[in-house]
Amino acid sequence: MGTKFCVSLTYAKNDTDKATVAFVIANAAVASNKETMVFLSTEAVRLATPGYADDVAEPGFSPLKDLMANFVKAGGKIFVCSPCLKRRGLDENKLVAGATVVGGAKLVEFLSDGSPCVSY
């Protein structure tokens, strides 16, 4: 069985259900001792900005900010698409804890050994 797991997320407040479920799955993977990465691209990069996810709470789930914080605390990595941040005029120096700005090559590298990836 593989040791890595990837969640690719393209949604933020434009679909809070998908954004929330992505981090629920990411938390399950990291809790299963998988090296887990969430790759934020397109609109999802907004989730990496402090305060943005604070008011997102889908019924039946923990608030998104808590899911994100718990994921990082458990050792999960949040990779943020650099060109997507720039396109939206967001400051790559002001990100939530655990978020790292990367290019697409980092995603390719992570997946190059055949690691599973789910997309939301």
Q: Notable features of this structure?
A:
single chain; 120 residues; alpha/beta; Hypothetical Protein Ychn, Chain: A; 4 helices; 5 strands
Structural description of this entry:
With 120 residues, the protein is of the alpha/beta class. The chain has one domain (4-119): Hypothetical Protein Ychn, Chain: A (3-Layer(aba) Sandwich), CATH 3.40.1260. Helices cover 33% and strands 20% of the residues. It has 4 helices and 5 strands, in the order E-H-E-H-E-H-E-H-E. The protein has helices at 16-31, 64-73, 82-87, 104-111; strands at residues 4-9, 35-40, 77-81, 99-102, 117-119. The longest helix has 16 residues, at 16-31. The chain is globular.
Report the average pLDDT across residues.
96
Query: Could you say how many structural domains there are in total?
Result: 1
Helix content: 25-40%
Q: CATH homologous superfamily?
A: DsrEFH-like
Classify the beta-strand content into a percent band: 15-25%
Tell the overall outline.
Answer: globular
Q: List the helices and strands in order.
A: EHEHEHEHE
Structural class: alpha/beta
Name the strands of the widest sheet in spatial order.
Answer: 4-3-2-1-5
SS field, number of helical segments: 4
Q: Describe the main β-sheet briefly.
A: 5 strands, parallel
**β-strand number:** 5
CATH topology: Hypothetical Protein Ychn, Chain: A
CATH class: Alpha Beta
